[in-house]
Amino acid sequence: MRTAGLKAALTALLLFSAAAAAVPGGEQVYRIGTDEDYPPMSFMQDGVARGIDVEILQRAAQLEDFAYELVPLEFDAVIPKLVSGQLDAAMSSLNITPKRAAIMDFSEVYMVSTLSAVVRCSQLDRFKYGADFFGKSAAVKTGTYASEFVEHDSRRLHVSLQYYSSTEECAQAVAQGKADFLIEDYPVAAAMQQSADPPQLCLTSVHLAPISGYGFAVAKGENQELLLKFNRALHTMQQDGSLERIFRRYLKNVPVSGPEEAQP
């Protein structure tokens, strides 16, 4: 497991590299936060940020000619740092919800998702319907849309919640029998299952929440020009096929939708 010191060193190295590469002639450099551990959306690999969110942002910056520093963070720090002014924007698989829209302005949807339940493959036959989750224990990542959704419905579902700081820790809790299932965004859950050989954890057919959409975010009323640039770039990426190519690079066999099918 990475130490806090190593995380800080990698972050500093990434910020330095991004700044050095993206600051021609003293133009504004936007500080944009992302989740440092959320594959395939955003993650660190050999000290370099990779993933769908990362590549969409890179492409948007190329198309609209803006400079930025990518700031990898634990997810539960992204929104607080954005609304407090420590970040200019966030590109972190943020589901657009009324609660979040009250404190942030979002781009158009760049990817749709839903919440999926993941269980041990040996237990898959026991989780076919929503009622099968009643009275069970769920592992959720702190501060996420999944945690907000289940917290809201936990009494109705009679689900006990266990909080972890990463999706990997949630997966370990389920694999070790500490929790009955984990709740995660569908693209991430599907990629988790695909990456294991043989898979120890399996997606259930039960979707726990309505379809939602990911958006690029800025603090309420702030950095509206950047938001406009991202939306313009998003339209271009949709039209030239680069958005779909980024999806397929990381989600080869997972159905995903771009902004034309999605509604916030």
Automatic annotation (TrEMBL):
UniProt keyword annotations, A-Z: Signal
One protein family per Pfam: SBP_bac_3
Signal peptide interval: 1-21
InterPro entries, alphabetized: Iontro_rcpt_C, Solute-binding_3/MltF_N
A GO CC term assigned to this protein in UniProt: membrane
Ionotropic glutamate receptor C-terminal domain sequence ranges: 29-253
A GO MF label: ligand-gated monoatomic ion channel activity
Start and end residues of each Solute-binding protein family 3/N-terminal domain: 29-254
Entry's family note: Belongs to the bacterial solute-binding protein 3 family.
Name listed for the protein in its UniProt record: Amino acid ABC transporter substrate-binding protein
Organism: Candidatus Avisuccinivibrio stercorigallinarum
